[in-house]
Amino acid sequence: MDSIAEVVTKHASVASSVLTRVEEVLRWDEGVSLKSSAEKAMTYEVPGGRLIATYTLAAQGNLSYGTDLVYQSVSGMTDSEKAQDVSVLTELLESTQREVDCQVCYNLMLDPVTTPCGHTLCRQCLARTLDHSLHCPVCRRGLALPPSLQSQASNATIVELLNGLCPDAVAARAETVAQENRPGEGELDVPLFICTLGFPHQPTFLRIFEPRYRLMLRRCVEGNREFGMLMYNRYYEPQAELGPVHFYHYGTMLRILHCQVLPDGTSLVETRGMYRFRVRAHGILDGYAVGNVERLEDVPLAEEERIESVEISRPAVDESDVAGQIDRMPTGTLLTLAQDFILRMRARSAPWLQQRVLDIHGQPPEDAALFAYWFASVLPISDEEKYKLMGTTTVRERLKITASWIRRIESQRWVD
Fold it and tell me: What's the pTM?
């Protein structure tokens, strides 16, 4: 209102020579006779055009909130007077719109949310600041708000004001934001969390506290609830056409099942692996990695059977050649070997097969296609060893890898 008063005062000083007759329109209820003839409509002659005259009467307390008015120029409406009204209205709109600019992005507020300390910002902008700090970006007071703002209502009064004041600008702003958040086809549209290994059909539990990953997580929750998990490449080993990058290029797509946000902004996330993928291209978005990925599928069953037939028909090898012996085992035998090993380890009360581990990962699956992922999830060996499963394209190859782990464990007491 202070901004409006400044605009009116400026224009009133140069429009005092113009008089506008303002007449109240008497109201009556439908079905009820007109008021008594003694009650005449109030008429005023006020300096300035229609907008300035109306503001002046309201400021003097002569108009009630619901009053309807009709206008008439004392000297007859001229083109210059019409132009003046247009000029005043344009400046009022511009001045008022500046008052509803967000103090974070300095654009027109979009879906405004008001903080407990009284500052109103775009919902997206406030959420972005809460990814980094739980303080108001304007006054720096602490904010007891959930960082996702999912339960925080919009400021309905300001939403109504914006939609009435500048609907075209609001629509254009919403379209711009939607375009910025919409990935193009074939672009870097998959968020990548570079941390550790995840496996298909297995749970992965994460604690996310870095601002860049808090932002990534919020966007995932608001979107399709999926992101890629990649293992950190500490020695920058070359990854095919990607070259030496800081992650291994095979990963697992995770789906967010549950997300609990703690008061300090840290998130405890439960996910489940969906499928493996290979990163074809990568980049950075707002501090976290994004990529273009290709889903990794196993070969058809007929091809798997052909590979098994070729390998088991090879000539016998020396007993000291463990790898050669494993190559010649049928796929069913490889699965049985692993299942028997699990039974022996459970009989010995191996700590990595305690009930709490089985409560999380479940019992050993009977499905050969899933067994290796379950085994890798519970076996306490290095992630570098487990990563060997990620690039495989046959169930048989994965079971051969698990068999090699078992032989090494049995011969060297690799794990307790």
Answer: 0.65
